[in-house]
């Protein structure tokens, strides 16, 4: 009765256990207003990115290869039945003429085993560095996508500000037209400008939706999970703008370090190919049995003669070509790294100068001109064309200031990735 009850209960218990395990491994639900700040997005990406998980599994697989590469080959055991009587066929060790038990162990000479372990270790280190590079690239991609989303959202906010301003201008134009101090064309022109802003808003909404979808894909989420809206470009985790980028990158860039490890692995393969032209050794230990007793022991050394020198020479030539290729790839990686750093540094310097110019001179002057023109027009003294030109100028300058801000962030983000900074 009890056994029957336990068997009946086992099915529901297993189902409940499986459901509990599924609940523990199912995707987490993002918090409310997810997407407003960068740190939460970066943490989420690091925990849920399939690309980063794949890179880490690759490193783990390469790390396990070190053990297999540094281990001896499995020994071989041989059992021989000797002098079997043709009239009394049997495999009973006590009823045959003799038994021979042999254990053969291949022994790598000339440091071949250490070289194989060295190559595997360099491969594992290269995989670890590539995982770091994947992590840095993921963080950079998330920041870029967030900056694109922020630019669209901030442009929409500027669009609404300009629309509010144009509505004030429309009120003033209608008032002046009502008292005969302005033409109807002025009010119609303002309405046209408002319609153009509405059309621009549609394009900006599309850009924001596309940037949001791109960011969600990097986070392994549906776009609907990004319930917040970016408010500011957070530069936390980005490097100082004054450091020596090239020196830091030469020491810390994961791709460059991985290329160096690949060159070391190729050098190890070349050394191994050269030593494969030397003889190999097998050690065999034997025991002889007569009846039920071990009567003697034997020891044998076998040498593997590398007579196929053509194949060995081809192996060495291949390893030499791969070693030269790895060195050339390392040099090319360094040149590309230096080029990108110099480009991003120039972009950063230019953006910094633009922001200072906009904040200290250009924007304050343009905004004062707009306020003066709006006040004069509202009082019936200013010209509509001057007011509209001032409004358009402020609009352009604010957009340019936003672009400079995004460019500065993008340059710092790229430099952060190139120097291999750990965020």
Give Rg in angstroms. 37 Å
Number of spatially distinct domains: 1
Largest β sheet strand count, sense and barrel closure: 4 strands, antiparallel
Q: How many beta-strand segments? A: 4
**Low-pLDDT segments:** 1-26
Contiguous helical run count: 9
- CATH class category label: Mainly Alpha
If you consult CATH, what is the topology? Outer membrane efflux proteins (OEP)
Global shape: elongated
Determine the structural class based on helices, strands and strand pairing: alpha+beta
Question: Helicity range of the residues?
Answer: 55-70%
Mean pLDDT value: 84
CATH homologous superfamily placement: Outer membrane efflux proteins (OEP)
Strand order of the largest sheet: 1-2-3-4
Q: Which strand-content bin applies to the residues? A: 5-15%
Assembly category: single chain
Distance between the termini: 62 Å
CATH architecture: Up-down Bundle
Q: Output the helix-strand order.
A: HHHEEHHHHEEHH
Layout of strands and helices, then pairs:
Blueprint: H1 2-25, H2 38-48, H3 50-70, E1 76-82, E2 98-107, H4 112-178, H5 184-218, H6 245-252, H7 254-275, E3 280-290, E4 293-304, H8 309-378, H9 384-418
Antiparallel strand pairs: 1-2, 2-3, 3-4
Pfam families: OEP
Protein name: TolC family protein
Signal peptide: 1-23
């Amino acid at each position: 009765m009890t056994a029957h009850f336990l068997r009946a209960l086992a099915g529901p218990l297993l189902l409940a256990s499986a459901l509990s395990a599924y609940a523990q491994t199912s995707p987490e639900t993002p918090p409310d207003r997810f997407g407003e700040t960068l740190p939460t997005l970066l943490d989420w990406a690091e925990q849920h990115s399939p690309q980063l998980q794949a890179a880490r599994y690759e490193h783990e697989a390469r790390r396990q290869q070190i053990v297999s590469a540094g281990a001896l080959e499995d020994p071989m055991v041989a059992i021989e039945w000797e002098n079997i009587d043709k009239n009394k066929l049997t495999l009973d060790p006590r009823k045959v003429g003799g038994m021979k038990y042999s254990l053969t162990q291949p022994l790598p000479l000339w440091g071949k085993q250490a070289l194989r372990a060295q190559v595997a270790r360099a491969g594992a280190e290269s995989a670890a560095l590539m995982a770091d590079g994947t992590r840095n690239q993921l963080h950079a991609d998330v920041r870029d996508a967030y900056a694109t989303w922020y630019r669209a959202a901030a442009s929409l906010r500027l669009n609404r500000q300009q629309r509010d301003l144009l509505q004030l201008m429309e009120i003033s134009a209608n008032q002046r037209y009502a008292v005969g101090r302005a033409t109807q064309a002025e009010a119609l022109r303002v309405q046209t400008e408002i319609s153009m802003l509405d059309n621009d808003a549609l394009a900006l909404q599309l850009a924001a939706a596309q940037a949001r979808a791109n960011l969600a894909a990097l986070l392994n989420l549906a776009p609907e999970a990004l319930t917040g809206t970016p408010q500011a470009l957070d530069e936390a985790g980005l490097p100082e703008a004054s450091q020596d980028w090239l020196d830091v990158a030469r020491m810390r860039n994961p791709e460059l370090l991985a290329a160096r490890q690949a060159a070391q692995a190729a050098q190890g393969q070349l050394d191994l190919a050269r030593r494969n032209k030397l003889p190999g050794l097998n050690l065999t230990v034997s025991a002889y049995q007569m009846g039920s007793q071990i009567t003697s022991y034997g020891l044998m050394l076998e040498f593997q003669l590398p007579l196929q020198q053509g194949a060995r020479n081809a192996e060495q030539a291949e390893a030499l070509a791969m070693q030269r290729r790895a060195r050339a790839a390392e040099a090319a990686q360094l040149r590309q790294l230096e080029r990108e750093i110099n480009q991003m540094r120039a972009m950063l310097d230019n953006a910094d100068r633009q922001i200072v110019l906009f904040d200290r001179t250009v924007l304050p002057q343009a905004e004062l001109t707009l306020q003066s023109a709006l006040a004069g027009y509202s009082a019936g003294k200013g010209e509509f064309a001057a007011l509209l030109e001032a409004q358009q100028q402020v609009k352009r300058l604010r957009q340019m200031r936003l672009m400079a801000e995004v460019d500065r962030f993008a340059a710092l983000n790229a430099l952060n990735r190139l120097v291999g900074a750990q965020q």
